[in-house]
């Protein structure tokens, strides 16, 4: 079906979208995203109205875009255009921002960072949104998007939110940092994780401290890190301490 859509003209894809039975429409939308031909994306652009379509159908489109294994710049361009300046249901907006981060990350993996205007626009959209976010849930969504994008230049931003934010923000920022490969877990990242683990700046939730310990253990821990993590485990609940001990044992093995 996807191969057929790749050969089809825009008018044919658009007609298929408009005539598909309601129960088949999500399948056709997902297939049109997977096809990623110029015609199928142009048809989706004409068909999808983010101000009118059922929320479930819009989320289907965004999920299909986010999980696309090798997305194109055109797919990111379509996603950006559909989200830009629209009054959206909160769930659609959240899915859209997180999907945008995923698309940016995958395009950068294809060495297209800095080469495609859509990628730069996507990065700036996420960063500008994070700078302007006032409410905690909104900040968390943008941090999740940065976690999907996995851009090394955003690590200082994630570190700042990890150390200074409220619990939900700290959790989202540390979770985003956990997605970076070991080569990006610098001494500065480790120092921040140590401060969170040992509560040097303020009191942190146990889940945040546990995640900070995981980053240290998963990225060439020093002997002193291992000793301090074991000492910190004494302050934690039995279940959390046991989990940390197993992580240390796996690291030693």
TrEMBL record:
Vitellogenin domain: from which residue to which, for each copy? 1-232
Listed under GO cellular component are: basolateral plasma membrane; endoplasmic reticulum; Golgi apparatus
Q: Which domain of life is it from?
A: Eukaryota
Q: Which Gene3D superfamilies match?
A: Vitellinogen, superhelical
- Record-annotated membrane-spanning stretches: none
InterPro entries linked to this entry:
Lipovitellin_superhlx_dom (IPR011030), MTTP (IPR039988), Vitellogenin_N (IPR001747)
User: Which biological processes are named by the entry's GO terms?
Assistant: lipoprotein metabolic process
Record GO terms (molecular function): phospholipid transporter activity
What's the protein name? Answer: MTP protein
Lineage of origin? Eukaryota, Metazoa, Chordata, Craniata, Vertebrata
